[in-house]
UniProtKB/TrEMBL annotation:
Residues 35-205 form the FAD-binding PCMH-type domain. This is FAD/FMN-containing dehydrogenase. GO terms for molecular function: FAD binding; oxidoreductase activity. It comes from the Bacteria. Belongs to the oxygen-dependent FAD-linked oxidoreductase family. Gene3D superfamilies: 3.30.465.10, 3.40.462.20, Uridine Diphospho-n-acetylenolpyruvylglucosamine Reductase, domain 2. InterPro entries: BBE, FAD-bd_PCMH, FAD-bd_PCMH-like_sf, FAD-bd_PCMH_sub1, FAD-bd_PCMH_sub2, FAD-linked_Oxidoreductase, Oxid_FAD_bind_N, Oxy_OxRdtase_FAD_BS.
Length: 466
Protein backbone atom coordinates (compact mmCIF):
# COMPACT_ATOMS: atom_id res chain seq x y z
CA UNK A 1 0.00 0.00 0.00
CA UNK A 2 1.46 3.38 -1.01
CA UNK A 3 1.89 6.27 1.43
CA UNK A 4 -1.25 8.07 0.22
CA UNK A 5 -3.37 4.95 0.70
CA UNK A 6 -1.89 4.30 4.14
CA UNK A 7 -2.71 7.85 5.21
CA UNK A 8 -6.28 7.51 3.96
CA UNK A 9 -7.01 4.07 5.33
CA UNK A 10 -6.01 5.11 8.83
CA UNK A 11 -8.94 7.56 8.90
CA UNK A 12 -11.34 5.87 6.52
CA UNK A 13 -14.56 3.89 7.02
CA UNK A 14 -14.58 2.60 3.44
CA UNK A 15 -11.82 0.85 1.49
CA UNK A 16 -8.78 2.17 -0.36
CA UNK A 17 -7.76 0.25 -3.51
CA UNK A 18 -4.29 0.61 -5.03
CA UNK A 19 -2.32 -1.02 -7.85
CA UNK A 20 -1.18 -3.69 -5.38
CA UNK A 21 -4.74 -5.01 -5.00
CA UNK A 22 -6.18 -7.78 -7.18
CA UNK A 23 -9.30 -5.73 -7.96
CA UNK A 24 -7.41 -2.55 -8.92
CA UNK A 25 -8.15 -2.84 -12.65
CA UNK A 26 -11.86 -3.48 -12.13
CA UNK A 27 -12.00 -0.65 -9.58
CA UNK A 28 -10.43 1.74 -12.08
CA UNK A 29 -12.63 0.65 -15.00
CA UNK A 30 -15.32 2.89 -16.48
CA UNK A 31 -18.28 2.18 -18.75
CA UNK A 32 -16.57 3.23 -22.00
CA UNK A 33 -13.93 0.64 -22.87
CA UNK A 34 -11.99 3.16 -24.99
CA UNK A 35 -10.40 4.45 -21.79
CA UNK A 36 -8.01 2.70 -19.42
CA UNK A 37 -6.69 4.90 -16.63
CA UNK A 38 -4.20 4.30 -13.82
CA UNK A 39 -5.18 6.30 -10.73
CA UNK A 40 -2.99 6.63 -7.66
CA UNK A 41 -5.78 5.08 -5.59
CA UNK A 42 -9.52 4.46 -5.66
CA UNK A 43 -11.30 5.31 -2.42
CA UNK A 44 -14.60 3.49 -2.02
CA UNK A 45 -16.41 5.91 0.23
CA UNK A 46 -18.95 4.56 2.70
CA UNK A 47 -20.17 7.92 4.02
CA UNK A 48 -20.15 11.67 3.55
CA UNK A 49 -17.37 11.78 6.14
CA UNK A 50 -15.24 9.52 3.93
CA UNK A 51 -15.74 11.89 1.00
CA UNK A 52 -14.71 14.85 3.15
CA UNK A 53 -11.58 13.03 4.35
CA UNK A 54 -10.60 12.06 0.80
CA UNK A 55 -10.92 15.64 -0.44
CA UNK A 56 -8.86 17.02 2.44
CA UNK A 57 -6.12 14.42 2.09
CA UNK A 58 -5.89 14.97 -1.67
CA UNK A 59 -5.68 18.73 -1.13
CA UNK A 60 -3.03 18.44 1.58
CA UNK A 61 -0.94 15.99 -0.49
CA UNK A 62 -1.31 17.91 -3.76
CA UNK A 63 -2.97 14.96 -5.52
CA UNK A 64 -5.58 15.63 -8.25
CA UNK A 65 -9.12 14.33 -7.72
CA UNK A 66 -11.64 12.61 -9.92
CA UNK A 67 -15.11 11.53 -8.87
CA UNK A 68 -17.14 8.51 -9.92
CA UNK A 69 -20.84 8.10 -9.33
CA UNK A 70 -21.96 5.61 -12.00
CA UNK A 71 -18.84 5.91 -14.20
CA UNK A 72 -21.08 6.20 -17.25
CA UNK A 73 -19.95 9.46 -18.89
CA UNK A 74 -18.83 8.97 -22.48
CA UNK A 75 -15.39 10.57 -21.99
CA UNK A 76 -14.32 8.16 -19.22
CA UNK A 77 -13.32 11.15 -17.09
CA UNK A 78 -14.60 9.65 -13.82
CA UNK A 79 -11.16 8.08 -13.43
CA UNK A 80 -7.93 9.98 -14.12
CA UNK A 81 -4.29 8.95 -14.28
CA UNK A 82 -2.36 9.51 -11.02
CA UNK A 83 -5.48 10.90 -9.34
CA UNK A 84 -7.32 9.99 -6.19
CA UNK A 85 -10.67 8.61 -7.38
CA UNK A 86 -13.58 9.27 -5.04
CA UNK A 87 -15.79 6.25 -5.78
CA UNK A 88 -19.39 6.65 -4.56
CA UNK A 89 -20.55 3.15 -5.53
CA UNK A 90 -20.81 2.24 -1.84
CA UNK A 91 -23.39 5.00 -1.37
CA UNK A 92 -26.26 3.56 -3.45
CA UNK A 93 -29.10 3.98 -0.97
CA UNK A 94 -32.58 4.94 -2.18
CA UNK A 95 -35.36 5.57 0.32
CA UNK A 96 -38.91 6.72 -0.43
CA UNK A 97 -40.52 8.91 2.24
CA UNK A 98 -44.33 8.48 2.14
CA UNK A 99 -44.93 11.46 4.42
CA UNK A 100 -43.39 13.88 1.91
CA UNK A 101 -43.77 11.94 -1.34
CA UNK A 102 -40.05 12.36 -1.90
CA UNK A 103 -37.20 9.91 -2.48
CA UNK A 104 -33.73 10.35 -0.99
CA UNK A 105 -30.90 8.97 -3.13
CA UNK A 106 -27.20 8.38 -2.47
CA UNK A 107 -24.55 9.81 -4.77
CA UNK A 108 -23.54 6.38 -6.08
CA UNK A 109 -27.04 5.13 -6.92
CA UNK A 110 -27.88 3.94 -10.42
CA UNK A 111 -31.13 4.59 -12.27
CA UNK A 112 -32.18 1.00 -11.65
CA UNK A 113 -31.89 1.57 -7.89
CA UNK A 114 -34.06 4.68 -8.14
CA UNK A 115 -36.58 3.12 -10.53
CA UNK A 116 -37.08 0.02 -8.39
CA UNK A 117 -37.52 1.96 -5.15
CA UNK A 118 -40.05 4.23 -6.81
CA UNK A 119 -41.89 1.31 -8.46
CA UNK A 120 -42.31 -0.41 -5.10
CA UNK A 121 -44.21 2.66 -3.97
CA UNK A 122 -46.19 3.33 -7.15
CA UNK A 123 -44.34 6.53 -8.05
CA UNK A 124 -41.62 7.69 -10.43
CA UNK A 125 -38.91 10.26 -11.03
CA UNK A 126 -38.32 11.00 -14.74
CA UNK A 127 -34.82 9.64 -15.30
CA UNK A 128 -32.98 8.46 -18.39
CA UNK A 129 -33.26 5.34 -20.55
CA UNK A 130 -30.53 2.91 -19.41
CA UNK A 131 -30.79 1.52 -15.89
CA UNK A 132 -27.06 1.25 -15.16
CA UNK A 133 -26.55 5.00 -15.68
CA UNK A 134 -25.60 6.93 -12.52
CA UNK A 135 -28.29 9.10 -10.95
CA UNK A 136 -25.70 11.76 -10.08
CA UNK A 137 -24.32 12.45 -13.53
CA UNK A 138 -27.72 12.22 -15.18
CA UNK A 139 -29.29 14.70 -12.77
CA UNK A 140 -26.43 17.19 -12.70
CA UNK A 141 -26.45 17.31 -16.52
CA UNK A 142 -30.23 17.84 -16.67
CA UNK A 143 -31.65 14.38 -17.30
CA UNK A 144 -33.67 13.62 -20.45
CA UNK A 145 -35.45 10.30 -20.89
CA UNK A 146 -38.67 8.44 -21.52
CA UNK A 147 -40.77 10.59 -19.17
CA UNK A 148 -39.29 14.03 -19.83
CA UNK A 149 -42.12 15.22 -22.10
CA UNK A 150 -44.78 14.24 -19.57
CA UNK A 151 -42.94 15.00 -16.30
CA UNK A 152 -39.94 17.20 -17.11
CA UNK A 153 -36.21 16.71 -16.75
CA UNK A 154 -34.72 14.74 -13.87
CA UNK A 155 -33.33 17.96 -12.41
CA UNK A 156 -36.83 19.50 -12.47
CA UNK A 157 -37.88 17.00 -9.78
CA UNK A 158 -34.82 17.79 -7.64
CA UNK A 159 -35.60 19.51 -4.33
CA UNK A 160 -32.30 19.32 -2.45
CA UNK A 161 -28.68 18.20 -2.77
CA UNK A 162 -25.96 17.49 -0.23
CA UNK A 163 -22.50 18.38 -1.52
CA UNK A 164 -18.96 18.27 -0.17
CA UNK A 165 -16.96 21.27 -1.39
CA UNK A 166 -13.26 21.74 -2.20
CA UNK A 167 -12.43 22.26 1.49
CA UNK A 168 -14.20 19.08 2.56
CA UNK A 169 -17.10 21.04 4.05
CA UNK A 170 -20.68 19.80 3.68
CA UNK A 171 -23.10 22.16 1.92
CA UNK A 172 -26.85 21.67 1.49
CA UNK A 173 -28.51 23.42 -1.43
CA UNK A 174 -32.18 23.97 -2.26
CA UNK A 175 -34.42 26.78 -3.47
CA UNK A 176 -34.06 28.43 -0.05
CA UNK A 177 -30.55 27.38 0.99
CA UNK A 178 -27.59 28.30 -1.25
CA UNK A 179 -29.97 28.96 -4.17
CA UNK A 180 -27.09 29.95 -6.47
CA UNK A 181 -25.57 26.49 -6.08
CA UNK A 182 -28.97 24.82 -6.45
CA UNK A 183 -29.47 26.67 -9.74
CA UNK A 184 -26.04 25.58 -10.98
CA UNK A 185 -26.25 21.86 -10.15
CA UNK A 186 -29.42 21.56 -12.24
CA UNK A 187 -27.63 21.35 -15.59
CA UNK A 188 -24.12 22.60 -14.78
CA UNK A 189 -22.63 19.17 -14.05
CA UNK A 190 -20.20 18.10 -11.32
CA UNK A 191 -18.14 21.28 -11.41
CA UNK A 192 -18.86 22.54 -7.90
CA UNK A 193 -18.15 19.66 -5.53
CA UNK A 194 -19.01 16.03 -4.80
CA UNK A 195 -22.77 15.62 -4.59
CA UNK A 196 -23.31 12.81 -2.10
CA UNK A 197 -27.10 12.95 -1.81
CA UNK A 198 -30.19 13.96 -3.77
CA UNK A 199 -33.81 14.48 -2.80
CA UNK A 200 -36.49 14.28 -5.50
CA UNK A 201 -40.19 14.94 -5.72
CA UNK A 202 -42.10 11.97 -7.10
CA UNK A 203 -45.46 11.55 -8.80
CA UNK A 204 -47.71 8.49 -9.14
CA UNK A 205 -46.97 6.11 -12.02
CA UNK A 206 -48.76 2.92 -12.94
CA UNK A 207 -48.19 0.88 -16.07
CA UNK A 208 -46.87 2.44 -19.28
CA UNK A 209 -47.45 1.51 -22.90
CA UNK A 210 -44.40 0.86 -25.08
CA UNK A 211 -44.38 0.37 -28.82
CA UNK A 212 -41.78 -0.19 -31.53
CA UNK A 213 -42.05 0.12 -35.29
CA UNK A 214 -39.46 -0.97 -37.88
CA UNK A 215 -39.35 0.69 -41.31
CA UNK A 216 -37.09 0.07 -44.30
CA UNK A 217 -34.57 2.83 -44.88
CA UNK A 218 -36.01 3.43 -48.36
CA UNK A 219 -39.22 4.60 -46.65
CA UNK A 220 -37.43 6.86 -44.16
CA UNK A 221 -38.19 10.16 -45.91
CA UNK A 222 -41.93 9.44 -45.92
CA UNK A 223 -41.89 8.26 -42.30
CA UNK A 224 -39.94 11.29 -41.07
CA UNK A 225 -42.26 13.63 -42.99
CA UNK A 226 -45.29 12.01 -41.32
CA UNK A 227 -43.75 12.48 -37.88
CA UNK A 228 -42.96 16.11 -38.61
CA UNK A 229 -46.49 16.77 -39.90
CA UNK A 230 -48.11 15.35 -36.75
CA UNK A 231 -45.57 16.38 -34.10
CA UNK A 232 -47.33 19.57 -33.04
CA UNK A 233 -50.40 17.47 -32.14
CA UNK A 234 -48.54 15.02 -29.90
CA UNK A 235 -49.80 15.08 -26.31
CA UNK A 236 -47.06 15.40 -23.73
CA UNK A 237 -47.85 11.88 -22.52
CA UNK A 238 -46.29 10.59 -25.76
CA UNK A 239 -42.51 10.26 -26.08
CA UNK A 240 -40.96 9.24 -29.41
CA UNK A 241 -37.42 8.03 -30.06
CA UNK A 242 -36.39 7.66 -33.72
CA UNK A 243 -33.29 5.68 -34.60
CA UNK A 244 -31.57 4.94 -37.88
CA UNK A 245 -29.63 1.82 -37.02
CA UNK A 246 -28.89 -1.83 -37.59
CA UNK A 247 -31.45 -3.42 -35.32
CA UNK A 248 -32.08 -7.03 -34.32
CA UNK A 249 -33.50 -6.68 -30.83
CA UNK A 250 -32.73 -5.05 -27.50
CA UNK A 251 -31.27 -8.25 -26.08
CA UNK A 252 -29.25 -9.20 -29.19
CA UNK A 253 -26.05 -7.62 -30.52
CA UNK A 254 -26.71 -5.85 -33.85
CA UNK A 255 -25.34 -7.81 -36.81
CA UNK A 256 -22.71 -5.57 -38.47
CA UNK A 257 -23.85 -6.88 -41.87
CA UNK A 258 -27.52 -6.07 -41.35
CA UNK A 259 -29.03 -3.25 -43.42
CA UNK A 260 -29.80 0.07 -41.78
CA UNK A 261 -33.46 0.55 -40.85
CA UNK A 262 -35.52 3.29 -39.23
CA UNK A 263 -37.10 2.38 -35.91
CA UNK A 264 -39.67 4.34 -33.95
CA UNK A 265 -39.88 3.57 -30.26
CA UNK A 266 -42.68 5.26 -28.38
CA UNK A 267 -43.82 5.34 -24.80
CA UNK A 268 -47.14 6.58 -23.48
CA UNK A 269 -47.16 7.64 -19.84
CA UNK A 270 -50.14 5.48 -18.87
CA UNK A 271 -52.69 3.74 -21.10
CA UNK A 272 -52.85 5.46 -24.49
CA UNK A 273 -55.86 6.86 -26.21
CA UNK A 274 -56.64 5.63 -29.72
CA UNK A 275 -55.27 8.92 -31.06
CA UNK A 276 -51.73 7.45 -30.98
CA UNK A 277 -52.68 5.39 -34.03
CA UNK A 278 -53.30 8.55 -36.03
CA UNK A 279 -50.18 10.35 -34.84
CA UNK A 280 -47.64 7.70 -35.81
CA UNK A 281 -47.07 6.02 -39.20
CA UNK A 282 -48.92 2.79 -39.98
CA UNK A 283 -46.91 -0.41 -40.40
CA UNK A 284 -47.33 -4.15 -39.99
CA UNK A 285 -43.94 -4.30 -38.28
CA UNK A 286 -45.00 -2.96 -34.89
CA UNK A 287 -45.20 -4.42 -31.40
CA UNK A 288 -47.14 -2.79 -28.56
CA UNK A 289 -47.25 -3.87 -24.92
CA UNK A 290 -48.45 -2.54 -21.58
CA UNK A 291 -45.54 -2.87 -19.18
CA UNK A 292 -43.91 -1.86 -15.95
CA UNK A 293 -41.73 1.20 -16.42
CA UNK A 294 -38.73 -0.58 -14.88
CA UNK A 295 -38.73 -3.13 -17.73
CA UNK A 296 -38.66 -0.37 -20.35
CA UNK A 297 -35.79 1.33 -18.54
CA UNK A 298 -33.69 -1.85 -18.48
CA UNK A 299 -34.33 -3.17 -22.00
CA UNK A 300 -31.30 -1.40 -23.55
CA UNK A 301 -28.84 -2.33 -20.79
CA UNK A 302 -27.33 -5.20 -22.77
CA UNK A 303 -26.73 -3.15 -25.89
CA UNK A 304 -25.04 -0.40 -23.90
CA UNK A 305 -23.10 -2.76 -21.67
CA UNK A 306 -19.91 -1.95 -19.79
CA UNK A 307 -16.56 -2.40 -21.49
CA UNK A 308 -17.54 -1.86 -25.13
CA UNK A 309 -15.95 1.02 -27.00
CA UNK A 310 -18.27 4.01 -27.48
CA UNK A 311 -18.26 7.36 -29.22
CA UNK A 312 -21.05 9.96 -29.13
CA UNK A 313 -21.54 13.39 -30.62
CA UNK A 314 -24.76 15.21 -29.65
CA UNK A 315 -26.67 18.31 -30.68
CA UNK A 316 -30.04 20.02 -30.50
CA UNK A 317 -32.42 20.65 -33.38
CA UNK A 318 -34.88 23.54 -33.26
CA UNK A 319 -36.57 22.67 -36.54
CA UNK A 320 -36.67 19.59 -38.74
CA UNK A 321 -37.60 19.78 -42.40
CA UNK A 322 -36.95 17.82 -45.61
CA UNK A 323 -33.31 18.96 -45.78
CA UNK A 324 -32.66 17.69 -42.24
CA UNK A 325 -34.32 14.38 -43.08
CA UNK A 326 -32.24 13.99 -46.25
CA UNK A 327 -29.00 14.64 -44.34
CA UNK A 328 -29.99 12.12 -41.69
CA UNK A 329 -30.80 9.42 -44.25
CA UNK A 330 -27.59 10.01 -46.20
CA UNK A 331 -25.55 9.75 -42.99
CA UNK A 332 -27.25 6.44 -42.23
CA UNK A 333 -26.50 5.12 -45.71
CA UNK A 334 -22.82 5.98 -45.26
CA UNK A 335 -22.51 4.16 -41.93
CA UNK A 336 -19.71 1.59 -41.82
CA UNK A 337 -20.35 -1.97 -40.63
CA UNK A 338 -21.00 -2.14 -36.90
CA UNK A 339 -23.35 -0.73 -34.31
CA UNK A 340 -23.57 2.79 -35.75
CA UNK A 341 -26.74 4.79 -35.22
CA UNK A 342 -28.33 8.21 -35.32
CA UNK A 343 -31.02 8.79 -32.71
CA UNK A 344 -33.49 11.62 -32.27
CA UNK A 345 -35.41 12.09 -29.01
CA UNK A 346 -38.37 14.43 -28.93
CA UNK A 347 -38.27 17.25 -26.38
CA UNK A 348 -40.85 19.92 -25.50
CA UNK A 349 -43.88 19.22 -23.35
CA UNK A 350 -43.21 19.51 -19.61
CA UNK A 351 -39.58 20.48 -20.24
CA UNK A 352 -40.86 23.87 -21.41
CA UNK A 353 -42.98 24.40 -18.28
CA UNK A 354 -39.88 25.47 -16.33
CA UNK A 355 -38.53 28.92 -17.25
CA UNK A 356 -35.09 28.76 -18.87
CA UNK A 357 -33.52 31.02 -16.24
CA UNK A 358 -34.70 28.83 -13.34
CA UNK A 359 -31.99 26.20 -13.92
CA UNK A 360 -28.64 25.97 -15.69
CA UNK A 361 -29.94 23.42 -18.21
CA UNK A 362 -29.56 25.08 -21.63
CA UNK A 363 -31.79 23.11 -24.03
CA UNK A 364 -35.38 23.87 -23.02
CA UNK A 365 -36.21 25.60 -26.30
CA UNK A 366 -34.97 22.69 -28.44
CA UNK A 367 -37.45 20.58 -30.39
CA UNK A 368 -35.26 17.46 -30.51
CA UNK A 369 -32.03 16.10 -29.08
CA UNK A 370 -29.93 14.26 -31.64
CA UNK A 371 -27.07 11.91 -30.86
CA UNK A 372 -24.73 10.31 -33.40
CA UNK A 373 -23.14 7.30 -31.76
CA UNK A 374 -21.36 4.03 -32.29
CA UNK A 375 -20.46 1.05 -30.12
CA UNK A 376 -17.92 -1.64 -31.02
CA UNK A 377 -15.46 -4.15 -29.59
CA UNK A 378 -12.18 -3.99 -31.53
CA UNK A 379 -9.84 -1.00 -31.18
CA UNK A 380 -8.84 -1.46 -34.84
CA UNK A 381 -12.31 -0.11 -35.74
CA UNK A 382 -11.81 3.14 -33.77
CA UNK A 383 -10.75 5.34 -36.66
CA UNK A 384 -13.49 4.23 -39.05
CA UNK A 385 -16.41 4.51 -36.60
CA UNK A 386 -15.27 7.72 -34.90
CA UNK A 387 -14.60 9.28 -38.30
CA UNK A 388 -18.07 8.36 -39.52
CA UNK A 389 -19.74 9.77 -36.40
CA UNK A 390 -17.91 13.09 -36.68
CA UNK A 391 -18.73 13.44 -40.37
CA UNK A 392 -22.37 12.45 -39.82
CA UNK A 393 -22.74 14.96 -37.01
CA UNK A 394 -21.27 17.75 -39.13
CA UNK A 395 -23.76 17.02 -41.91
CA UNK A 396 -26.85 16.64 -39.69
CA UNK A 397 -26.44 19.13 -36.83
CA UNK A 398 -26.21 22.85 -37.63
CA UNK A 399 -23.36 24.68 -35.93
CA UNK A 400 -24.02 26.67 -32.76
CA UNK A 401 -27.18 24.81 -31.73
CA UNK A 402 -25.77 23.55 -28.43
CA UNK A 403 -25.68 19.98 -27.14
CA UNK A 404 -26.97 17.82 -24.31
CA UNK A 405 -24.06 17.84 -21.87
CA UNK A 406 -24.54 14.24 -20.70
CA UNK A 407 -23.81 12.96 -24.22
CA UNK A 408 -20.94 15.37 -24.83
CA UNK A 409 -17.32 14.84 -23.89
CA UNK A 410 -16.02 12.52 -26.61
CA UNK A 411 -14.70 15.74 -28.14
CA UNK A 412 -14.29 18.75 -25.87
CA UNK A 413 -17.29 20.96 -26.69
CA UNK A 414 -17.50 24.72 -27.06
CA UNK A 415 -18.99 25.64 -23.67
CA UNK A 416 -20.43 28.91 -24.95
CA UNK A 417 -22.31 26.93 -27.61
CA UNK A 418 -23.51 24.37 -25.05
CA UNK A 419 -24.70 26.79 -22.35
CA UNK A 420 -24.90 30.20 -23.99
CA UNK A 421 -22.70 33.10 -22.89
CA UNK A 422 -25.00 34.39 -20.15
CA UNK A 423 -25.53 31.02 -18.45
CA UNK A 424 -21.84 30.14 -18.79
CA UNK A 425 -20.81 33.41 -17.16
CA UNK A 426 -23.19 32.77 -14.27
CA UNK A 427 -21.90 29.20 -13.86
CA UNK A 428 -18.34 30.51 -13.66
CA UNK A 429 -19.37 32.88 -10.87
CA UNK A 430 -20.91 30.00 -8.91
CA UNK A 431 -17.78 27.93 -9.55
CA UNK A 432 -15.65 30.75 -8.12
CA UNK A 433 -17.77 30.71 -4.96
CA UNK A 434 -17.77 26.96 -4.28
CA UNK A 435 -14.59 25.74 -6.02
CA UNK A 436 -12.28 28.73 -6.56
CA UNK A 437 -9.20 26.47 -6.78
CA UNK A 438 -10.80 24.44 -9.60
CA UNK A 439 -10.41 21.12 -7.79
CA UNK A 440 -13.36 19.50 -9.59
CA UNK A 441 -12.81 19.21 -13.34
CA UNK A 442 -15.43 17.05 -15.04
CA UNK A 443 -15.57 16.28 -18.74
CA UNK A 444 -17.72 19.38 -19.29
CA UNK A 445 -15.30 21.50 -17.29
CA UNK A 446 -16.27 25.04 -16.32
CA UNK A 447 -13.46 27.27 -15.06
CA UNK A 448 -14.10 29.59 -12.12
CA UNK A 449 -14.46 33.27 -12.84
CA UNK A 450 -11.35 35.27 -12.02
CA UNK A 451 -11.16 35.90 -8.27
CA UNK A 452 -9.81 39.27 -7.11
CA UNK A 453 -8.24 39.86 -10.50
CA UNK A 454 -6.39 36.53 -10.56
CA UNK A 455 -6.70 34.41 -13.73
CA UNK A 456 -8.88 31.32 -13.69
CA UNK A 457 -7.13 28.01 -13.08
CA UNK A 458 -5.71 25.81 -15.84
CA UNK A 459 -8.54 24.34 -17.90
CA UNK A 460 -7.25 20.85 -18.63
CA UNK A 461 -9.93 18.40 -17.38
CA UNK A 462 -8.87 15.91 -14.71
CA UNK A 463 -12.03 14.02 -13.74
CA UNK A 464 -15.78 14.02 -13.47
CA UNK A 465 -18.78 13.27 -11.34
CA UNK A 466 -20.69 10.69 -13.35
Amino acid sequence: MNALATLLQSRFEGRVVTAEDADYRSSAAVWNGMFEKHPAAVVRCASVTDVSIAIRVARDQGVPLSVRGGGHQISGAAVADDALVIDLSGMRTCSYRPATGRVVVGGGALLGDLDRECARNGVAVPAGMVSHTGVAGLTLGGGIGWLCRSRGLTCDSLTRVTMVDHLGEVVTASESDHPDLFWAVRGGGGNFGVVTGFEFDTAPLGLVTYGMQVHDLRDAATVLAHLEDTREHWPRELQVLVRLQRFVGHDVEPDPRSPMVLTIEWLWDGTPAEQVRNLLPRTDRETVSVRRFTSVQAQQDHRFGHGRRYYMKPGYLRDFGPASAASLIEAARSAPPGDAQLEILQLGGAICDVPTEQTAFPGRDAVMAINVQAGWEDRSDDEQLVGWARAAHASVVPGGTGAYANFAGSDRPDLAAVFGEETLSRLREVKATYDPQDVFRPAIHIEPAAVHGAPAADSEPKGALL
